[in-house]
Fold this sequence. Notes:
- The chain is 37% helix and 14% strand.
- It has helices spanning 9-16, 72-79, 95-105, 119-128, 136-142, 144-152, 154-160, 189-194, 203-215, 237-242, 269-281, 294-302, 359-369, 415-423, 437-444, 452-464, 480-506, 514-523, 526-538, and strands at residues 5-6, 23-24, 53-61, 83-91, 107-108, 111-113, 170-173, 186-188, 226-228, 253-256, 259-262, 306-309, 323-325, 339-340, 345-352, 355-356, 397-398, 404-405, 432-433, 469-470, 476-477.
- α2 (72-79) links the parallel β3 (53-61) and β4.
- α1 (9-16) runs antiparallel to α7, α6 (144-152) packs across α7 (154-160) and α11 (269-281) packs parallel to α17.
- It is globular and about 70 Å long.
Amino acid sequence: MKKAIVSIVAALLSIAMFAGCGAGQQAASNPAGGTAPGKLNMVSDFPIANEVIELSVVVTTTAISGRTEDLWFWQFMETFGNVKFSVEQIPSDVWNERFNLLIVSKSLPDMFYNCYITINEIVKYGMLENIFLDMNSYIDLYAPNVRKAFIEYPLIEQAMTCPDGGIYQLPSILATDYPTSTLRLYYNDSWLKALNFNYPDTLDELYEVLTGVKEGDPRGDGVQVIPFSSGAYPPFTPFVSAYGYPASAPESLAVKDGEIKMLAVEPEYRDYLEYVNKLYKEELIDKDIFTQSIEQVRAKYTENLLFITSDHPASFGHSFEDWQCFAPVTGGSNTEKIWCSPMQYQNTRLVISSGSNSKEACMRFANWAFSDKGYLQYHGPSVEMDADILLNYPGWYVDENGGSVNPTAEDALDGWTYINKYGSPVNGYPLGYAPSNNRMNNLFNLNLVQAGEAKLWFDSLEKNWIPYFADPFPQFYFGEDDLRRIDELSVPIYDYIKEMNIKFIVGDEPLSNFDKYTQELKNLGIDEFMTIYRNVYAN
């Protein structure tokens, strides 16, 4: 069997630093040469082209994303960058299905921008099938800013490099002033104080708090509230981490005690299920938690009905004067509080189709994204620095306290929601460098500081998350044989675990059938699945 290769870059980083529209699926027949196509601007980072060119792009969207025609960024790119993008928006909740259809249809865009393409898909469709472009020879010719970033962050370049030496994706580099966890939960601290509860340290104490919230009257008006709710699967991060797993769900792989493990295949998973099932039966968890849409849970949030939830309070008119980041608790035999830390980069912010006729233009776009002005992908334009490119967008500004203030709207949209609806196509960290006050200050001689709600949020995460960060699951690149076998095993295994997790919690499957569950996992090949991962990790 061909030996699998693993990149343990994530763990190292956590320690080391807190013009064609449409592309077919054929491999590239004309690799990068020494002469750039005449339409491209090769003298400066921007504009991308000297005359208008067309590129097709697929982007993912969330519930707060705006329509393509409403977003400042695409208008800016066409008006000032000379790139007219044909944009296909794919909602995040149907991404997998739509992505697979694109692959099967053999009709791919020039590029995928900020999409949920996995590392295994990068290996499969990049290294093995040449559907994605190996950018290596293009980076030096067309994207010197990318090369500069890789020189500055060599471990990130290593993380982007497949076992064959190819680079089939480009990242977001999280060179931020503070590391924010991707596993986010928040609780209403004002309710906790109103009920005279201390913050819980254990699952048992958390049960008492949730019971008190349900049976008490934290709002003071007699309205029945919901102790725990979320609109995104999996919502049970605090219960998983309580058992010592720095992961978001029981089926998520994690490094625990120096070994790759999965809570859903360990004996203590039964204790986890008993606990969450008790919360569900006693209506301490929202009865609709597995079926409601993001919009439905956010409506409850807006009505101030939730005690613990996963949406940022400021997005719904709440203040961090009342809310806090949910700190980890302990449970079972675990006595150490942990929370999964973020990677210092995000994968697959840009993937280019190998059959694109505009590879060089895509790389020039990447070069701009890694430039000093790449922040426009995320922040949008500044009123002062970018007055000449505002178009009809109001822009952000620096207030008297030194904090950056995003535009808002009369319909009560907060700054982040406004950016997503009218400014940027990026819901998350952008291609290139993630936003950072320090970076913006150094580049543009500003004096941005954490202020207002941003400072309250930072103070909360500094207190409740950062001290408990544990290394995230490392990034793996499998060899061809192992990847094929993992692909065969993973879908039925993960589907079964997710299905049974819900059934056990809601009571459709009695816990007396737990042994049958573990036997069925063995029948599906869970032992082989875990062995492959453990062997790769050991090597």
